[in-house]
Inverse folding.
């Protein structure tokens, strides 16, 4: 395997445990808890939302990696994406708050908000109110655009290839490398949430809401720093 | 279900997360040994003396920067090296962003790279200078804060 590809895979594997669980753990836990609170799925079926979420996330990485490779410049593409990424951070926060409300059984209370016809609120409601696990793929596609320092490091390598195919492959390998750690974390959350009902699940919902609020504040701060 | 179990579960979701990362950033500032915005930082290790400078100033994240390294062996320009800078973050695993340097004159090597932005707010970076691209151990390292 070429050095660049090996670098991407090992950065993903190491970063999954050393970076992603800390930074993105709550985002991974949100869909798992949300699905558990709705369907109570256990066993392998409970992993489907996660698999689809990661597939969506890696698809986005691959597309951005191809763009980086085609442009041959990290700064140019990252500069164009910065505003979008900061918005995605705010959207992620909103989605997590909605998920948290869903886990707490309070999502029906958002009907009043929906009357305001806000696009984000309507989309989030549509995404989270259904029961199909397929909705987690588009969620992964969107949240794959979250600003992330670790992925920036690998995007620089993707840009350095100067070729869209190589840039895409580098990001695919990086994304795949991050999966074991996040899947393990998600499986742990799923295991606990499938057994822990009531107060424990509600505590998870409150934690997801708290993290959602944190992401919104962080997204606004990143905008201010631009 | 016991409230303590609920609290433990909530803490599991938040443990080591972005909130903790923010609290860590103040601790990282204590590691800084190079005020890169003030000018080149020079360090000596055995026979080797190395100075690092980054331009343009102030050094900012997410923009192309030129890394300049001047190497001296017992006071004489070190010719024939193929140095690489490995950029890492002391407070969080961010992978290693490698910047290859090329000789511009005797003992002076430059390369272009980008110091990335960490959304957690951390701004302390470590630049490790390797004399060869294949070296596993850095010759000299500098820890600095960016804007």
């Amino acid at each position: 395997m070429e050095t660049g590809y090996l670098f991407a895979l090992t950065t993903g594997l190491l970063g999954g445990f050393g970076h992603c669980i800390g930074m993105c753990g709550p985002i991974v836990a949100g869909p798992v808890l949300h699905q558990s609170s709705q369907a109570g799925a256990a066993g392998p079926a409970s992993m489907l939302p996660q698999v689809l979420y990661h597939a969506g996330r890696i698809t986005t990485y691959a597309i951005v990696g191809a763009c980086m490779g085609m442009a041959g410049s990290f700064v140019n593409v990252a500069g164009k994406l910065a505003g979008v990424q900061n918005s995605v951070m705010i959207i992620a926060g909103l989605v997590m708050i909605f998920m948290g409300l869903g886990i707490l059984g309070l999502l029906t209370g958002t009907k009043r908000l929906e009357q305001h016809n806000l696009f984000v609120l309507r989309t989030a409601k549509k995404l989270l109110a259904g029961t199909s696990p397929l909705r987690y793929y588009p969620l992964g596609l969107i949240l794959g655009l979250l600003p992330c320092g670790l992925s920036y490091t690998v995007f620089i390598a993707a840009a350095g290839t100067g070729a869209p195919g190589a840039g895409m492959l580098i990001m695919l390998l990086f994304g795949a490398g991050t999966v074991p750690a996040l899947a393990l974390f998600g499986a742990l959350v799923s295991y606990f949430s499938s057994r822990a009902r009531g107060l424990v699940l509600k505590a998870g919902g409150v934690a997801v809401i708290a993290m959602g609020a944190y992401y919104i504040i962080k997204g606004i701060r990143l905008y201010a720093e631009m | 279900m016991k409230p303590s179990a609920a609290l433990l579960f909530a803490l599991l979701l938040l443990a080591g997360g972005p909130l903790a990362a923010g609290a860590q950033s103040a601790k990282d500032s204590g590691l800084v040994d190079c005020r890169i915005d003030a000018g080149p930082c020079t360090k000596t290790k055995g026979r080797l003396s190395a100075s690092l400078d980054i331009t343009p100033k102030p050094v900012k994240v997410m923009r192309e920067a030129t890394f300049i390294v001047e190497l001296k062996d017992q006071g004489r320009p070190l010719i024939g090296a193929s140095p690489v800078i490995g950029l890492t973050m002391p407070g969080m695993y961010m992978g290693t962003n490698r910047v290859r340097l090329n000789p511009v004159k005797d003992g002076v090597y430059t390369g272009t790279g980008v110091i990335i932005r960490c959304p957690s707010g951390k701004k302390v970076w470590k630049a490790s200078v390797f004399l060869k691209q294949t070296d596993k151990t850095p010759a000299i390292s500098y820890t600095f804060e960016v804007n």
